[in-house]
Design goal:
Oligomer: heterodimer
Structural class of chain B: mainly alpha
Number of helices of chain A: 5
Shape of chain B: globular
Largest sheet of chain B: 2 strands, antiparallel
Strand order of the largest sheet of chain B: 1-2
Largest interface: A-B, 16 and 16 residues
Distance between the termini of chain A: 32 Å
Helix content of chain B: 40-55%
Number of helices of chain B: 6
Radius of gyration of chain A: 18 Å
Order of helices and strands of chain B: EHHHHHEH
Structural class of chain A: mainly alpha
Shape of chain A: elongated
Strand content of chain B: 5-15%
Number of strands of chain B: 2
Strand content of chain A: under 5%
Distance between the termini of chain B: 26 Å
Helix content of chain A: over 70%
Largest sheet of chain A: none
Number of strands of chain A: 0
């Protein structure tokens, strides 16, 4: 028997919120660990570093897809419409806005800091991307509780 | 997305008709969560959604939504949309 689209959308929304919390916090912990271990990013000539870089980009992309789709990317049309109603769009807009400001603040701080200390472009891009993704994901996870 | 200056009598009108949040959500084409957040004044709906809600509940928009501290909903309640 096919599940009611409303119930299915409700279930997907609850599951997505749990995933957003868990994956957002896990990503945050990973990034803290990354910068605790490597003050400067390691050279990307070793295979293990290439794997780490690919994993970082893949996780960023997956989290951004989750924010953009609300978790219903592979659901039916009706369910996708319910997961993209005006409340969902408003919450997503808030997440994008906060992510944008996080990236701007990192860029601003990095630009100032680069005048007094050496900061690699890779480090700055990594921190900026991480901050934007983490703030957007956690904002959306938090707004789902209201 | 915040508790703004827009009050509403959505819960009263919905329960008057014996509808659940899920029923009303289905009738206007949004998620149950959206109805819940509008009722609890967490989310300010768009003009399109307020018009749809009023039409489905059979009341005027002004009877359903009001500016807090200004309009008394009882004074303008009733009437067809």
């Amino acid at each position: 028997m096919e599940q009611d689209p409303d119930e299915k959308a409700d279930r997907i929304a609850r599951r997505t919120q749990r995933i957003l919390w868990a994956s957002g916090l896990a990503f945050l912990v990973w990034q803290i660990g990354y910068f605790a271990l490597y003050r400067d990013p390691p050279p990307t000539t070793r295979n293990v570093d290439k794997v780490r870089t690919i994993a970082f980009l893949a996780w960023c992309a997956a989290l951004l897809l989750l924010v953009a789709s609300g978790g219903g990317a592979f659901a039916g049309r009706k369910v996708r419409a319910l997961l993209d109603d005006e409340l969902a769009r408003a919450r997503r807009g808030e997440a994008y806005r906060n992510g944008f400001w996080a990236m701007i603040l990192i860029a601003f701080a990095g630009y100032v800091a680069a005048h007094v200390t050496a900061i690699g472009a890779l480090t700055l891009a990594h921190v900026g991307l991480s901050a934007g993704v983490i703030v957007a994901v956690l904002t959306l996870a938090h707004s789902g509780r209201r | 997305m915040r508790d703004g200056p827009l009050g509403n009598r959505l819960r009263e009108e919905r329960t008057r008709l014996g509808l659940t949040q899920a029923d009303l959500a289905r009738m206007v084409g949004v998620s149950r969560k959206t109805i819940n957040t509008v009722e609890n004044r967490v989310f300010i709906p768009s003009a399109v959604l307020t018009l749809r809600l009023a039409r489905v509940l059979g009341v005027r928009v002004e009877a359903l939504f009001y500016l807090t501290g200004e309009d008394e909903p009882e004074a303008i309640a009733g009437g067809a949309p």
